[in-house]
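Worked problem 6 (solution included).
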Amino acid sequence: MDNKQHSVSPDYQRQGFVVLKGFVEEQERSSLLAVVNEFHQQWLRKNAEFYTERAINSAYLTASTSLNDTQRQVLFNFIGSHRIMALAYALLGKQPAFMNTQLFFDPANPDQKNYWHRDAQYHLSLDEQREALSGPQVLHFRFALVDEPGLDVIPASHINWDTAEELDVRMGNNGKAPHHDLPNQKRISLKAGDLLIFSANLIHRGIYGMDRRALDVLFCDPEPDILKYANPDCLPHGKQLIPIDDPTAFTVTTHCLANDERCKRV
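Solution. The predicted structure is:
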């Protein structure tokens, strides 16, 4: 691991995010972009109305429903590569689990507003969101496949609860709206090939523009209450595991889904 990667864990623990510039080499980025664009075109055909209305992201890129086995293997091999898994181990310990993949793109409406959020706000109460700051971790590994505006974040909000203003903006209360600027916001612009790792608990908002193609791989602690949201069809099995450098994250999730009732699909 190079010097930049040695600093990943303390930087992440302190601020809730870390950036590795030029992490993905050009040939690999080009290969990934081709697969991602094929998935995106198929997704657009199937979800035209949703895209026109408001969509800014899709998910389950490694499922068998859109990509062929060769294309899926490109993603499996990338996710389970030694370089990526080394980072997952550094941040999550010896048993990081694979949760999902997502693709973030621009909305159909160029005037659509972005929004501050913590990922957990869509399935947890405010009290539960506060408790989650000291609970199991979910991490986004965001790979910029083209140059893009990136993300606005509130540093250290993965361990610190919202200020009164942050909460009002995030929840749209007291005359505030989720797209309003915040005093402590920090913008992280990304170039093609950059990797941004950030906590799902971090207060953040995506910045639209430049026809973004951000591939997110979500890793998490091996907790059944988190992995119950994983999709079994997104996991490699049998011969698909052979060419993967380190399939640990996939096998941990597979084991959980097979052996814990809380991991059954919700």
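Discussion: Residues 3-263 form a domain with the Jelly Rolls fold (CATH 2.60.120.620).
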